[in-house]
Write a sequence for this structure.
């Protein structure tokens, strides 16, 4: 019961606690994005524009109503009728012919703000002033003496709409009188609605046509456009406030002229304009009276007719019947260019044609009154859903879910734009989704990294880093069970360790062991060894698991040599260490100087510490052994037992690193791809062929001495003499063998040891001389069968 409660508390702390932190962070991010949206929804206006452009490009159609048409003052027209500006009588002819061909309304994307200098009256005055010549023109009516008057007479009798321009910044010049044609809208206002003059574009100045033309024209409208901050023309005002009146755009004035209906209803709401109603059409506008332009494509979408063809009367009768005609120019140097989503050099006259076509088709792009509510809910939903998913799942499922939600936002925006003409921006919701995924994934990653570092730091003293990495990578808890594989078992032990515990106090013993075991373990793990366990001063380890190391035998031998060298360095360090008896009394048991020298930090047996190592390779079982609640990643098998026997048996031979022939004979590929064994890399001395207690199969025992090529001259002599003795020993030539071993004894590596391999074989030869291992004349296998462990 207590164990179950402990596990539940641990789960709540590690799992639920982390998930709650992710949930709270995600909720905070979502709340901040909602506040950002409500506080300033157009802070990302430039990116919102790009979303609009992309939606328009993906959903547009080039089909038009066929009603708007453009009379183009093109290069061909200028070539035939002279450079611009043309005499006003030619403009009058153009208008009259357009009317004759049946145009329902003709709008001029041109302003005539200066008198026509080619009028006969003006020419007469200039000749009189410049050449002192007096001309008398008689018999012509006034209309033919003044081209502007002639144009005015034509304007009176047709469906013509003059264009003019509003300046939103005053030029400071004396403004001449303007005759414009305002609308007198019926204004419908809801409770708390803004006044038109407070929200519409308010122009301080107008560039208008000559008064004679303005008074004669039945209608007029502004061709002023208002690009967005990036210079792109996406929306244009249909009404502008000027000096106490509301004025229509050129397109709106043309529709009014063609329909004969001059009455509009302006609907106001809180925050600005909602729409205008003209005839039976409701035109949705934004709060400043602008209409979103639904372009049909690049420039050239609408029908164009050259002005030259009109003036030369090349059109069929009624060619313009019922059409709404805009007069503009595409000639080089006269182009009125704009930028739009499809085309950076878009003819400005087509913007007015687009307004006309959109109104006639009724396929407006609008932001419905509930747009902000939908966008708000989208931010809220994707924020909360992504937070929940990210807190409950891993990175990849969460990424898939976020991609699906992001695709849903984009598809929903595209679908509403294409089918209903509703512009709903998914931008803030997408930012919320991206921000949630990025920050929460980073948060989880850092938390996982923290767990990984904690796990690695906690267990690196027990397991190899590779095993820890494997457990983390596979995200699996250790389970009972093992697998059989060829590995190398590794055992170490301190010689006569019991004397250390007799002389040293418990804290001193812990201090000594920690320093010793730390140094040895660092060497072990650095070369890919896996620490199995400590048993007092003993180190039990293995090579070849959990990672498969083809050269595990060589690694074990290198680690053994490195450990012996490290112990020599430690012994020199301990011998040099001193302490101040007036500050600390380390020799608390008052041992004599020959046991613990005065002022030395450590006793003599520490200065002379020796370590025995046993190494053996073979097929063994490795895995998690133990119980369901307490297990250890360890090894089992006969090769393991033999490694332990070699470590213990090394004492009988007077050697410190014993390695079996099994280890030396395991082959593996070297860096060049060739097959090698450990014998190719190390120097060893054959010691004996023995059969340990309980086993009939003999094993060859070697002393591991150095890496290849690192033997001293003395060791070379020892190897040769000892090998000669072994040959004579196996041949049962006891006297000659004793002589060889006696000579080898002078070169033994540890002459001060209690025994040496030479001593062992001298003693054994003396015994066999008296009691041969086999009857005289019979063959002998040379195996020494041990009677004790």
């Amino acid at each position: 019961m207590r164990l179950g409660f402990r596990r539940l508390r641990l789960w709540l702390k590690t799992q639920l606690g982390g998930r709650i932190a992710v949930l709270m962070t995600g909720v905070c991010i979502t709340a901040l994005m909602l506040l950002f949206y409500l506080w300033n929804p157009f802070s990302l206006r430039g990116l919102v524009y790009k979303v609009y452009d992309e939606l328009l490009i993906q959903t547009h159609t080039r089909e038009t109503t066929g009603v708007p048409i453009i009379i183009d003052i093109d290069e061909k027209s200028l070539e035939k009728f002279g450079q611009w500006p043309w005499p006003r009588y030619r403009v009058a002819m153009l208008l009259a012919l357009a009317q004759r061909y049946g145009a329902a309304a003709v709008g001029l994307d041109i302003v005539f703000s200066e008198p026509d200098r080619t009028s006969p009256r003006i020419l007469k005055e200039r000749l009189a002033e410049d050449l002192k010549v007096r001309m008398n023109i008689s018999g012509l009516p006034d209309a033919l003496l003044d081209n502007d008057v002639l144009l005015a007479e034509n304007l009176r009798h047709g469906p013509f709409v003059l264009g003019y321009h509003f300046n939103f910044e005053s030029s400071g010049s004396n403004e001449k009188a303007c005759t414009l044609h305002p609308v007198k809208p019926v204004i419908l206002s809801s409770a708390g609605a803004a006044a038109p003059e407070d929200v519409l574009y308010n122009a301080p100045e107008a560039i208008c046509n000559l008064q004679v033309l303005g008074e004669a024209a039945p209608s007029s409208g502004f061709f002023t456009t208002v690009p967005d901050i990036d210079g792109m023309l996406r929306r244009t005002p249909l009404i502008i406030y000027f000096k106490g009146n509301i004025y229509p755009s050129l397109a709106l004035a043309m529709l009014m002229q063609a329909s004969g209906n001059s009455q509009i209803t302006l609907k106001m709401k809180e925050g600005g304009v909602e729409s205008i109603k003209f005839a039976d059409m409701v035109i949705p506008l934004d709060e400043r009276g602008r209409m979103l332009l639904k372009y049909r494509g690049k420039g050239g979408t609408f029908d164009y007719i050259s002005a030259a063809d009109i003036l030369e009367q090349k059109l069929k009768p009624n060619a313009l019947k019922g059409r709404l005609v805009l007069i503009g120019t595409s000639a080089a140097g006269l182009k009125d260019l704009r930028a739009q989503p499809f085309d950076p050099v878009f003819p400005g006259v087509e913007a007015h044609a687009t307004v006309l076509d959109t109104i006639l088709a009724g396929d407006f792009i609008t932001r419905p009154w509930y747009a902000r509510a939908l966008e708000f809910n989208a931010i809220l939903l994707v924020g909360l859903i992504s937070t929940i998913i990210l807190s409950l799942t891993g990175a990849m499922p969460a990424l898939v879910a976020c991609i699906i939600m992001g695709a849903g936002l984009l598809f929903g925006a595209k679908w509403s734009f294409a089918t209903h003409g509703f512009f709903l921006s998914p931008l803030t919701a997408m930012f919320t989704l991206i921000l949630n995924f990025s920050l929460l994934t980073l948060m989880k990653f850092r938390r996982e990294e923290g767990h990984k570092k904690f796990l690695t730091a906690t267990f690196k003293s027990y397991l190899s880093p590779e095993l820890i990495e494997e457990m983390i990578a596979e995200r699996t808890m250790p389970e009972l069970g093992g697998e059989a594989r060829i590995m190398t078992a590794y055992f170490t032990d301190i010689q006569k360790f019991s004397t250390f515990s007799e002389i040293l106090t418990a804290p001193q013993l812990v201090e000594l062991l920690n320093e010793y075991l730390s140094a040895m373990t660092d060497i072990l793990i650095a070369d890919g060894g896996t620490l199995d366990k400590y048993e007092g001063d003993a180190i039990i380890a293995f090579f070849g698991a959990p990672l498969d190391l083809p050269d595990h035998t060589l690694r074990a031998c290198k680690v053994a040599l490195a450990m012996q060298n490290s112990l020599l360095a430690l012994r020199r360090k301990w011998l040099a260490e001193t302490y101040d008896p007036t500050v600390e009394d380390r020799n608390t048991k008052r041992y004599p100087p020959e046991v613990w020298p005065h002022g030395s930090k450590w006793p003599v047996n520490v200065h002379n510490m020796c370590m025995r190592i046993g190494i053996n390779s073979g097929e063994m079982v490795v895995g998690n052994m133990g119980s369901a609640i307490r297990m250890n990643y360890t090894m089992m098998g006969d090769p393991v037992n033999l490694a332990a026997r070699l470590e213990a048996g090394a004492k009988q031979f007077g050697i410190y690193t014993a390695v079996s022939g099994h280890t030396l004979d395991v082959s593996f590929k070297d860096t060049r791809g060739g097959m090698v064994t450990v014998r190719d890399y190390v120097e060893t001395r054959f010691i004996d062929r023995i059969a340990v207690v309980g086993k009939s199969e003999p094993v060859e025992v070697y002393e591991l001495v150095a890496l290849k090529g690192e033997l001293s001259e003395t060791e070379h002599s020892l190897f040769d003499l000892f090998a000669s003795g072994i040959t004579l020993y196996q041949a049962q030539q006891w006297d000659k063998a004793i002589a060889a071993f006696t000579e080898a004894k002078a070169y033994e590596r540890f002459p001060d040891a209690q025994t040496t391999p030479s001593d062992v074989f001298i003693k054994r030869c003396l015994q066999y001389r008296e009691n041969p291992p086999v009857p005289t004349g019979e063959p002998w296998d040379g195996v020494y069968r041990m009677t004790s462990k």
Observations:
- Residues 459 and 468 are 8 Å apart (CA to CA).
- The chain has 25 helices and 28 strands.
- The two ends are 46 Å apart (CA to CA).
- The longest strand covers residues 611-626.
